[in-house]
Each structure stands twice: as structure tokens, then as C-alpha cells.
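ok posting inputs for the adenosine-5'-diphosphate job
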Amino acid sequence: MSKKIAIYPGSFDPITNGHLDLIKRASQLFDEVIVGITQNSKKSACLNIDQRLAITSTLLRDIDNIKVMSFNTLLVDFAKAQNAQIILRGLRAVSDFEYEFQLSGMNKHLNPEIETLFMTPAEQYANISSSLVREILSLGGDISHFVPNSVETLLKQQL
Ligand code: ADP
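and the output
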């Protein structure tokens, strides 16, 4: 049987405790998990792609079956190039559903061989989003519960 490889794509700007929890749980379910970091053109970036790649790789370096990469092609093409059969997304709330449903439908159309699977967050991380972390930080709020220390330090240096 072929290795089960899952891609977890996102902008991870910044990576949060919610993302990390989901990635670690996924690494126990699949032979390999590839965290695919995108340059999201619709959102104004806080950390650049090299910073996001470096910090995410460092945070996950102890887990053997996790790879961290960036990509700027179509997601299904990136998945195919990595021999991944699965796209993994997180579903936090009903508000995520409509966009995720659309995205998975489009990706299914583009490549029917790649399946999108959803994981829900651990309860304590259900309300964390990168965009709110950026907003709280910009207003001087405490983000220490939402992101690892190294991410907090880097974000504060960016300010
Ligand atoms: P994108 O810019 O593609 O939405 P994000 O970096 O915001 O990417 O998120 C990547 C994926 O992680 C998405 O599927 C998103 O729903 C999911 N996600 C974001 N925050 C959390 C969280 N706290 N718990 C679980 N999944 C999450």
C-alpha cells in the first residue's frame, strides 16, 4: 500500500497553537504530513514567507514525519508533485464551513483523485485565528496564550 501523505495548506501568518495541535494530531494519523505555506495574496502578510517557513520548521523539527514547505502553485498541483492523496483543512466553526466547502469542491473538480479531509480543533484552540492574533498584537494585547513563545517574540520584533 502506498504511503498516506497529507498536505496541510495555509498562510500560517502566524502559525498558532491551534495549527500546531492539529498538525501534531495529524502526524499520528498519516505516514507523512506536509505543512504547505502559501503566500496568500488576499491577506496582507505580517511575517514574510521565509520567516514563516523558518519558524514553522523549527517548531516542528522534532517530529520525523512532518515536512514544512512553501509553494506558489495550485494546491492540487503541489499535492500531486508531493505524491499526496489528501488535503487536510481545519474546521473551527460554522463560519469556516462555506468557504471550505467551496474550496474542497473546486479542488475535487481540478483533481478528483485528491481527497479533502477536515479536522476540528481541540476545544481550547477553537477560537484562535491568525488574523485575530495579528489584530490583538497590533493593539498591544496579550497573545501569549495563542502562539508559542518564539512566535510571540518574532511578531513583537516585527512591530
Ligand atoms: P488560510 O489562509 O488558507 O485560511 P490559515 O493559515 O488561516 O490558512 O489556516 C490554515 C488551516 O488551518 C485552515 O484550514 C484553517 O481553517 C485551519 N485553522 C486555523 N486556525 C485553526 C485552529 N485554531 N484550529 C484548527 N484549525 C485551524
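notes: Helices lie at 17-27, 49-59, 75-81, 94-110, 130-138, 149-158. The longest helix spans residues 94-110.
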